[in-house]
Specification:
Length: about 90
Amino acid sequence: MIKSSIIALLAVAAMGSVAAPAFADNDMGNSNSNHADGNYLDTDAVLARLHEQGVNATSVEHWGTLVRAFVIQPDGTQVSQLFTPDTLKPVAL
């Protein structure tokens, strides 16, 4: 039983180390970032535009072809919302 548990824990740890590189290119915290497709995201400008629209965003990043913003809701919770990169209009999936 213990041997099975140890093997399972090692398998989970190995899977975690494989997934880690996918998170290495995290744009959060960078004021300006380049996306893999070459699109440039001026995060400071995007945050300012979202704030002008009344969106209480704390950070933004590329998310595929969209912009993902982390937004504080009126009740204090934080949610992730998607916006078009050009107009910053909310996207419903």
